[in-house]
Amino acid sequence: MTLKSYKGFVVFLSIIAVFFLAFTQSSCKVRYGFQDAKSIPDSLKIVKINPITNSASYVNPRLAPELTDRLIQKVMRQTKLQQTRGSDADWIIDCKITSYSFSTAGISNQQVNSNRLNVGVNIIVRDKTQKIIGKYDVSTPFDYAGTLSLQQAEQGLLDQMLRDIPDAIFNRIFSNW
Question: Any idea which architecture 41-175 has in CATH?
Answer without folding.
Answer: 2-Layer Sandwich (3.30)
